[in-house]
Amino acid sequence: MTTTALLLSTVVTGLFLLAVTAYAVRAFPWQRLATRATAVAGGGAADARVLPGETAAPSRTPVALGGVVVLALCGGIGAALVPTTPVLGALVGLFAGLLALYVTWGTYHICRSRGLHYAQAVGIGVWILAMVFLVGVVARLLLGG
User: Fold this and answer.
1) How far, in Å, are 15, 82, 107, 114, 133 from residue 100 at the CA level?
2) How many Å apart are CA 66 and CA 61, to the nearest integer?
């Protein structure tokens, strides 16, 4: 029974990730990125201007899709780590994923509001998240859990 439930959970998660990927491929304007790369490769003033059909504001679609993928992976990993009750493991994994997204997103916005560039803010957010994970691993090793 447990094997069937895990297999069904794997298939459903795989179908969900395929649906999210298909949505990302169709929803995100990949052609604009190719146009922008061609214009920037020429150098000069093309770097600073917005091309026709391109907006100056970044799209939130990749960020939202990345969050969905992170939550799906955390749920699947949590279900795999707790084989006796996969639902409880999936819930714990989803909570951990939400907590990770919250910490990363909050750190990113704090850094951006203080004037740091995009890459610096993302790097600090990921670094903070890695430090929280490392503290959790060290605590588990020291407390013998």
Assistant:
1) 24, 20, 11, 21, 9
2) 8
pTM of the model: 0.50
* Segments making up each domain of the chain, as ranges: 2-143
Using CA atoms, how far residue 48 sits from 39, 45, 68, in Å, is 11, 6, 32
CB contact at 8 A, 72 and 13: yes
pLDDT one-digit tens code per residue, 64-102 = 777 777 788 888 888 888 778 888 888 888 888 888 888
In the numeric block, the tokens 């000069």 are attached to 44
Spatial neighbors of 120 by CB under 8 A, at least 6 apart, are 111
